[in-house]
Design goal:
Layout: H1 4-7, H2 18-35, H3 38-48, H4 53-56, H5 58-74, H6 77-81, H7 83-99, H8 107-134, H9 139-169, H10 176-193, H11 210-215, H12 220-246, H13 254-261, H14 263-284, H15 287-308, H16 310-324, H17 327-337, H18 344-372, H19 378-401, H20 405-414
Length: about 425
């Protein structure tokens, strides 16, 4: 029988794996700096390279498309070749691609490097997510650790845009952000090479291969959580990719103007704070209720912003970050935890595939919609509001039906050391 008291204790990874845990947090911090700075980069690149909204959105979808392909094609690497080898391999590719941003200032060169970076992210991120399962002792602990992990991602998402804005203000190219990322990659490769990783418990003789990843598409838990995450990601991406453009040129009251200028950074601050807060909230409130309430508030913030304009959006959209914070890591954790640990790399890859497909699709689609209405990004946010409403309806269903309850209880009794 599952010991629920023990399952609800704050998750503390083994002291032996402190270095592994810290390495995982650093990886998420590092790639968040670059991927979540894309909104500020787009705002600069549109002027420097004379791009339309649709063309500029390629800075985002190139990375996201590659992450999607990598997640579904290479997600099983972590299960087949081991977490450590896969992480080092992915970091090496990412570091080389980041360092190569100084080869020139050509639009198609940037797109190529962003695509390669996305492939690398898919490789080391799925391995890192699988590694979380190896250092936690329950599905509840897994979820809280995932929220802490995404909290460090949130810190990177704050630092990245701040660096881009600061570099641009000083007349320095945004590509120096990638030089910093390359240096971090080198440090983490050395770190990983000399760090002991936990062994993954073998629970099945089923061969680990690419077919296993594709076969998960027929699983109701894998697809249910993947689709929910895809809807969430569409809402989140709309903010950090297009909110700077939506609020560009805004002038109102002093406070509103300040919020419009730093809206994405404030959003990321709220998102990071909320993810660390999630470790505490999920200890006291059932995750299905948290998902329902928070998705409702997110929908409300989007609806207000889309239909009442820039002044409301300058406050409501950053505020939504506090409630978006727990959505992705919680849904991701629950989706992964429905499966044996020996499949966690493949499951993480499948979920990452839908995450990236959604991110890759919504950014250019919002750009196309805005361009159709003479470049007015408010119409792009109306589209995002519709997607947020569907997510809210899905989380209402999840709260009342709790379809994953049996699978998660089974995982606690068979996959974790309770």
């Amino acid at each position: 029988m599952v010991n629920h008291t023990q399952a609800l204790e704050v998750e503390k990874p083994s002291e032996n794996y402190f270095a592994v845990t810290a390495l995982t947090y650093t990886m998420f911090f590092m790639f968040a700096m670059t991927t979540d700075a894309v909104g500020e980069i787009i705002k600069i690149a549109k002027l420097d390279l004379n791009l339309t909204n649709t063309q500029a959105s390629a800075f985002h979808w190139a990375t996201m498309t590659a992450i999607a392909l990598s997640g579904i094609l290479f997600g099983y690497f972590a299960d087949k070749f081991g977490r450590k080898n896969t992480i080092i391999f992915g970091l090496a590719i990412y570091g080389l691609a980041s360092a190569s941003f100084f080869l020139g200032s050509i639009f198609y060169l940037y797109l190529t490097l962003l695509f390669v970076s996305g492939l690398a992210i898919g490789i080391f991120k799925t391995a890192a997510l699988a590694l979380i399962s190896d250092i936690t002792t329950s599905t509840e602990g897994h979820t809280r650790t995932m929220n802490a992990l995404e909290g460090f991602f949130g810190i990177g998402a704050i630092i990245g845009p701040l660096l881009v804005v600061s570099l641009h203000a000083k007349g320095v190219s945004w590509t120096y952000l990638y030089l910093f990322a390359a240096a971090l990659c080198l440090a983490m490769i050395i770190w990983a090479a000399f760090t002991k990783f936990p062994e993954t418990k073998k629970t099945s003789d089923e061969p680990v291969n690419l077919w296993q990843s594709f076969s998960l598409m027929g699983n109701k838990y894998a697809m249910g959580f993947s689709l929910a995450i895809a809807l969430y990601v569409a809402a989140e991406v709309s903010i950090f990719v297009w909110l700077p453009s939506f609020l560009d040129g805004y002038s109102g009251g002093q406070l509103a103007t300040w919020m419009a200028t730093y809206a994405v950074i404030v959003f990321f601050v709220f998102r990071a704070l909320g993810r660390f807060l999630g470790v505490w909230i999920l200890k006291h409130v059932h995750w299905t209720k948290v998902m329902m309430v928070f998705s409702g508030i997110i929908f409300f913030c989007f609806a207000l912003s889309a239909f009442f304009g820039q002044t409301v959006a300058a406050f409501a959209m950053p505020f939504s970050g506090l409630f978006m914070s727990m959505m992705y890591p919680t849904l991701n954790s629950k989706g992964i935890s429905c499966f044996p640990k020996t499949q966690h790399g493949a499951v993480a890859g499948l979920i990452l595939f839908f995450t990236a497909v959604s991110a890759a699709a919504i950014a250019p689609l919002m750009g196309v919609v805005a361009d159709y209405f003479n470049g007015d990004m408010r119409y792009g946010f109306i589209l995002a509001t519709i997607l947020a409403s569907i997510l809210f309806l899905g989380m209402i269903f999840n709260y009342f039906k709790d379809p994953a309850a049996a699978a998660l209880q089974h995982a606690d009794s068979t996959e974790y050391d309770l």
